[in-house]
Write a structure and sequence with these properties.
The chain is α+β, with helices and mostly antiparallel strands. It is built from ten helices and nine strands. Helices cover 50% and strands 14% of the residues. The termini are far apart.
């Protein structure tokens, strides 16, 4: 009887270093995080006490070099995101934001002073960051942003609001994108520290997904920062979009972890649950679902690994990331729904992880580029016609 979710021996394609990094995060998630997540999902909180432990595992800045970062490869980064999301999408989101949306833009676009100020502390988990791009009235179309930054002597003054910001109220620094003038190239990034006058953050309540994650709204009202707060290496939407591409890469891997957890739970359940005198795993329709789940997990694993290989070679394109994010999240959500069905009424209670993953994946299906937006990006590549703008 086959056990596990590596039917095509993806493990054999990994280096020893990649396997060890994956396994260390796997142990942490299953032994340390999993016993905590039910309580935090119910309360709508994130277990901040585990942040130093994540740092010790090298999760923060794992694929960045220098400044106290681990400097490991992109396959390791993906595998870590996979294992974190086996625990919960909120756990992976915390790490994704810290890595790809805060540390990466500082590392890529920041000054040496900015790098020295933030990257070592963030790698150690002593400073937390958030990323402010999405606004209340502009999600999929960030070019419509209305948050503005104007020069006033040696300072910048920022006014506007950002919405759906992971880690917003626990962050020590926010990477905030604002329009400095008219035109698409006027968008610039700023590092705004917690406590800066005119900068406030509040939690968004009432979520039914990503509950074990802090999600916030940021507001800027005559928020004055020094000129040194600007990220000098980024101008236009290419800056924030490059960060999103880094994050989407991790999401494509992470969704596999959620799918694997749902599959593992469903498989164990149907082998144990008896109906009409025998385990329900005996029945053909149940086996059909397990086969579909494992097949799509396997395809997602191979797609993610190939994406990681291309990233290592420097030939990964945004359309590759769009395909992997769209496909892997879509199938992770379908697998969660199938698992929920297979568990019957037990699939609706959080004593099993399935309903939590299903609710989380509804959010992941939308954020970092909706399913439809990624399909349009892929469609544009296929046809040469831009369905985003008609």
């Amino acid at each position: 009887m086959y056990e596990g979710t590596d039917l095509f021996d993806l493990n054999g394609m990994l280096t020893e270093e990649e396997q060890l990094a994956r396994d260390s995060v796997r142990r942490f998630v299953r032994e340390r995080f999993s016993p905590l997540v039910q309580e935090h999902f119910r309360k709508g909180t994130f277990p901040m006490e585990i942040v130093p432990e994540l740092a010790e595992l090298g999760v923060f800045g794992v694929n960045l070099t220098g400044y106290g970062c681990a400097g490991m490869n992109n396959i390791v980064y993906g595998l870590m995101m996979q294992e974190l999301e086996y625990g919960d999408s909120g756990l992976r989101s915390f790490a994704s934001v810290q890595n790809s949306l805060v540390m990466y833009p500082i590392w890529k676009y920041g000054t040496e002073q900015q790098k020295q100020r933030w990257l070592p502390a963030m790698a150690r988990g002593e400073a937390i960051g958030c990323f402010g791009l999405t606004e209340p009235d502009s999600g999929s179309d960030p070019g419509r942003m209305i948050t503005k930054a104007r020069r006033d002597g040696e300072s910048w003054v920022i006014d506007g609001a950002k919405m759906w910001i992971t880690n917003g109220t626990v962050a020590d620094v926010a990477v905030v994108w604002a329009r400095t003038a008219e035109g698409p190239e006027s968008i610039r990034g700023f590092l705004i520290e917690k406590g800066t006058p005119g900068f406030t953050a509040r939690n968004i309540e009432g979520k039914f997904g990503l509950r074990a994650s802090v999600t916030s709204e940021l507001a800027f009202d005559d928020c004055r920062v020094e000129a040194s707060a600007q990220l000098p290496g980024a101008s236009g939407l290419s800056g924030p979009l490059s960060c999103l591409n880094q994050a989407r890469y991790g999401i494509a891997w992470g969704a596999i972890g959620a799918a694997i957890c749902c599959y593992d739970t469903a498989r164990a359940y149907v082998l144990d649950r008896v109906a009409f005198g025998k385990p329900i795993g005996t029945y053909q329709l149940v086996q059909q679902k397990l086969v579909l789940m494992l097949t799509e997990i396997t395809k997602a694993q191979l797609l993610a690994h190939r994406m990681g290989t291309l990233k290592e070679k420097g030939t990964l394109r945004h359309v590759h990331v769009s395909m992997a994010k769209q496909n892997n999240v879509y199938w992770a959500l379908q697998i969660a729904r199938m698992a929920r069905d297979m568990l019957g009424a037990n699939g609706t209670v959080d004593s099993y992880p399935v309903i939590r993953h299903m609710l989380n994946l509804e959010s992941v299906f939308t954020y970092e580029g909706t399913d439809d937006i990624h399909k349009l990006i892929i469609g544009r590549e296929i046809t040469g016609l831009d369905g985003l703008r008609g």
